[in-house]
Amino acid sequence: MNDMRDRFVHAMSRCAASVSVVTTDGPAGRAGLTVSAMTSVSADGDAPTMLVCINRGATAADPILANGCFAINVLEAHQQDVADTFAGRTDAADRFADLPWEVLETGAPVLHGLAGFDCEVQSADLVGTHHVIIGAVRAVRVSEDGTPLIYGMRSYLRAERA
Asked: What is the pLDDT along the chain (162 residues), one digit of tens a residue?
């Protein structure tokens, strides 16, 4: 590991994060992908805001931007197969097949997971290889049971209460 990229990726593998699937639907089509780069920006103002980072080469990037909406779906510990499907690790022709989901406000599919944030795109900037997208939250779906699926150290982890 001699170059900065390798050291950076290795160090970032130590930063455990919840696993989410970002989905969209609209005139540009239905699409989705697995991400770990998502966070809240603010709970204040007219609407709470969320941030996601999407690789510009991802097949879901253009539909998210064109549809102007997305849902951040926080997965539960037992949903590793959903994460793998939306990460492209399976041969699923339709990533949404056989998954329970619903539409809230924007038209983006909200999967049945630990939490879902239905967002309208507010801004999108290309930073290096990724679109940094900020969305205004228009609706929220929450499961009162379950624990989050975590990814760190280059593998899935399970959260434990301290």
From this structure: 469 989 998 998 998 999 999 999 999 999 999 998 999 999 998 899 999 999 999 999 999 999 999 999 999 999 999 999 999 998 877 899 989 999 999 999 999 999 999 999 999 999 999 999 999 999 999 999 899 999 999 999 888 777
Spatial separation of the C-alpha atoms in residues 143 and 162, rounded to whole Å: 20
CB crowding 67-91: b at 16 or more within 10 Å, else e: bbbbbbbbbbbebbebbebbeeeee
Joined together, the tokens standing for residue 70 give 């997305």
Tell me which H or E stretch contains 5.
Answer: helix 4-12
